[in-house]
Write a structure and sequence with these properties.
The protein has 208 residues and is an alpha+beta fold. The protein has 2 domains: 2-82 and 192-199, Glutaredoxin; 90-189, Glutathione S-transferase Yfyf (Class Pi), Chain A, domain 2, CATH 1.20.1050.10. It has 7 helices and 4 strands, in the order E-H-E-E-E-H-H-H-H-H-H. The chain has helices at residues 12-22, 66-77, 90-117, 122-141, 155-167, 177-187, 190-198, and strands at residues 2-7, 26-31, 55-58, 61-64. It comes from Actinobacillus lignieresii. This is glutathione transferase. Residues 1-81 form the GST N-terminal domain. One of its GO terms (molecular function) is peroxidase activity.
Amino acid sequence: MITLDYLKQSCSHRIVWLLEALGLDYELKIYDRLEGTGFAPEELKAQHPLGKAPVLQDGDLVLAEGNAIIQHLLDRYDTENRFTPAHKTDAYSNYVYWLAISASMFSANLLALVSKKGDLGDFAQYTDAQVGLYFNHVEQSLEGKTWIVGEQLTGADFSLSFPLQWGLNYVNKADYPNIVRYLEQIETHPAYLKANEKTAGGLDLSRF
């Protein structure tokens, strides 16, 4: 049995999207953020020492970290490689690359959030530049492509969805038409809409 510990308004949402896309049965445990701080509740530490979400329990296996969960689900349940390029191909290498970029974008967004909350002077300019650097790279890479690796929806798209949705708070959307189109495509995907239903409304990252 698969159980997902899901924190509202977090990168947990992309895991629900993937679970729905794979057509898997799972139990969803939803946690609210703490009032005031917006932090994760202490109860999550009972699920994993890091006290963060998402946390996936699959039998005896317990995993945190979104990309690790995405790869586990694809390795174990994507038996027809619907969301995974063939191994030892350029497409697979690009897939792995974009998983890494997704993690780097998450860090850049976190720095931007910290600088947004305080008067950090030159550091704020640095963080804005870092977010812009990644957004420009994704924008150019999406030119002429349906998904980030090509015409196949892959785990990299599931991974990238959240840092792009979050990062839109720190950029001018008009500068990134390919990303806006890409996110609209993600957010209207049938499995994504099901994820919204399962989580009672989906994402609202405006506070971040």
